[in-house]
Design goal:
The chain has 80 residues and is mainly α. It is 39% helix and 0% strand. It has one domain. The protein has helices spanning 36-46, 51-60, 69-78.
Length: 80
């Protein structure tokens, strides 16, 4: 599995869900799961912003500004 999260020191370090770093020890709360569709939508939205706004939006989801080539491969594969 490959994710472009900011890692263990990020505000949202989990590659599976959007749990804030400070809430990781609290196992009684369920957090929204990350889906590739939602994270791609965030990345697409960020690509329309200036550099500062883009970085802040991506950081708020714990993402990095790197295009994921696998989305292109999946789209190509679905069309064949």
């Amino acid at each position: 599995m490959m994710v472009l999260t900011r890692g263990v020191n990020a505000s949202f370090p989990c590659p599976v869900c959007l749990v804030p770093k400070e809430e990781i020890p609290n196992l009684s709360v369920t957090h929204h799961l990350r889906t590739s569709e939602e994270m791609q939508a965030v990345w697409n939205r960020a690509s329309e912003l200036n550099a500062t706004e883009k970085e802040e939006l991506l950081k708020s989801y714990g993402l990095r500004d790197v295009q994921v080539i696998f989305h292109t491969v999946l789209i190509f594969d679905r069309n064949n």
